[in-house]
Predict the 3D structure of the following.
Amino acid sequence: MKYWLFKSEPFKWSWDQQKAKGDVGEEWDGIRNYQARNNMRDMKIGDRGFFYHSNEGLEVVGIVEISAESAPDSTTDDERWDCVHIRALADMPSSVTLKAVKANEALADMSLVTSMRLSVQPVKEDEWMEVCRMGGLNGKTLKPL
């Protein structure tokens, strides 16, 4: 299993909207950055990701799962752009702010810190476990600590 981080501006697509989609999930469309697109092409069903509110909040608020692998983005006719589908799995009992991530030496190399503008990012397993712990979740079971 690989881990990821998906950024969304809450006024465009919020965690509450993502959760409302239920098990069906939602297409993670509109990505127009090659590195972010390539990250999505590397995703497999069952991979997990953080749902991060950017611009407003600047915090990890939930956990998602890849529910469909990369396919053409339905919002464009341009065949260069793909996207995955994600579904909500769990709320973070306590949101994990960007400020808290930056203050944690164990996360100094995390893409959220080093590649802040990238909207779809890889997350290393140790980073996943640490952010989950900071948010009050067991990173393996997604049960509250």
About this structure: The two ends are 22 Å apart (CA to CA). Strands lie at 3-8, 26-27, 48-53, 59-72, 82-97, 120-123. The mean pLDDT is 97.
